[in-house]
Write a structure and sequence with these properties.
Length: about 675
Amino acid sequence: RPTVYNPLTAKKAKNVAKRAAGMSGTSTSSATISYSKATGFMLKPRMKTTINNPSHQSQLPIGFVAIIPSIRRNLARVSDLFDQGLTAFYGGEAERANTLASRVGQPEGLTSIIPEDYKLGEQGAYSTLTDDDAVVYLACKKEQCEEEEMGVSFAVPYFTYLLHIPRHVSRISVIADKDCVDHMVGCREHGQALTTFLAKHYPRATVSFIEEASTFAGYSRMNLADYLVCPPGISCFIPALVSGVAKSTLVANPNIVPWLSQIGEAELKNVTLLDMAKTFVAPVDNMDYGSFLNKLPPHEEKDCRFLRGRMGKWKQDMFSALEFQYPSSIRHYVGEADLRFIPTAETPYRVATTYRWEEDLFSQCGLETINRDAMCQLMKDLGMSRIFIVGDSLGMNMAQSLWKLMGHEDNPTEFGVRNPNWDRAVQCDPDDEEDYFVLSFARSDQLIENNLPVDVEQGIKNCYAYCYPWSERYTTYDDDTIFIMNTGPHYQTHHQFQAVFDEFVRKVDSFQRPRDIVLWRTSVPGHPHCDDPNSQKPFDSFQEYVATEITDDYSWDKFVGYNDYANKALDTRRRQDRVLVNLNGAPAPVLKPPGSLMSVSDEKNGIPTPRRTRIELLDVYPMTVQRPDGHVSSGECEDCPGITDRDCLHYFLPGPPDWWNHLLYSHLLELTLKENQMQG
């Protein structure tokens, strides 16, 4: 419990603060116990020392660094008390954990057809490992809002939150300090506008706005959060630096936090400091909400790849529909509908091929459609010579789609031969045999590798399905590779997926191919009502999908949880790899990020090679779940050969998987070295 404050302990605390700040000239070897007037908590005993160098006087940063351990202990103590109160509010630990049961996208009262043997571990759509909280704390820059000099509260644009609050979080709390609300015009309005925005763009999270009068509660919420994002101000720095848990995003402004340059690396291990010179900031009292909060991400930062495809709609585009067609139908059961389609004046193309994905918020983050010339140039700019796709039948469809989008008339494999592993050259310049890149596919439904026999054509399985070896094909290729992976539809439990994903990341790191680019494609569930005549058009929103299509058949409901786990893991990895700014707010020395290239000039300038391979998320889930149309069992081709079972998972080609490749191309464009590449 807090120690009661009294004048004697206040005097002791003042003396200790002076000594910690280098302002005491007395010398003694005795230890003094001090108390904080703000909290009443006992500070760690500190030995009295003598400061003989006058230049060290008034160095408050030394004092702050010295008491970080005490602040950490005290914040942990008050946070524990607050956490216990929350548990009591929910009615106990079990009831609090069960809040996942009411999260958007959680099926209720459905009967799974998964065998009982696979019903192990966590049930439901979400895993507790991704049941995370995010906190946004809004206050005045130095908390004392009633003081004219301090009475400024800042805002940053919406995209800042989308970039630094991962999409998997369960809850987001926008907390406005009551002092800011009472004394700062626009503080409440800023918080309310931000809450509305986040509720729309995190449709699976509970988003709340809180006017917090208690610093006990406010600091406890920040200290307990898994993610903390704040506009410029001093309030968030202390919880961010001492919690040791939360992943925090703060603006590095030495004018507001003068002691920031004295902070050690250990305190910053979970903190992302935004470069103040590159961060849009505006005071809330005279801010134009419509223009400032909706500012577009800076083009040069190339952040669209983390925003694209999350929020948008499918719109029919008959003008561009010809561009969406293949030069010839793919000879595979997913190509049968296209092969048998008879165009008419009213319907010149299969309806499912006439839709284009359009972004809702950031227009400059729209998808660029892929073609052979553009992809060849991109591969050269990236210095890559191979695209290697590994996965199950959906991964095979993505590889088939990419081959046809490159303008090929033929199949990637011999017609009639069930060959799940292939390598083909995409010729860029027909007059230059050396101008090409390789497109490869390997069938591995679960990413498992073993020595057991496997043969798709003969039905010989060596895992839950077919797991052909892939790592040797990957590692023995000498040149740089874009490596695209997925598994998920062949796992029925969270712990199974999590284990195989973690093992995949460990294996990629062990290969030590830091110049490669690895993209993990998210898993997409099927639509159980795909054969309903009313399902033959895209949904208008994610909310419409959730209301009608969530099912636990084939563990489709868990795919969102699998994706959340991958997103959280790769977000953590990206934070570790991100180039940070210097603690004084200035740009850090140039470092090449993982997966980037080393030019001759780079080597001369001493830029180090990446430490490990770049692994990022290729998130096709949000836009694909809005496409209940175009499935193999949509009724579009009921008599097509090769379709023996009801299939509401796979799509006919051309179709929605083509847009996975358009998303891939748009994502890779931002990784090129040429700044003008996106303008093409």
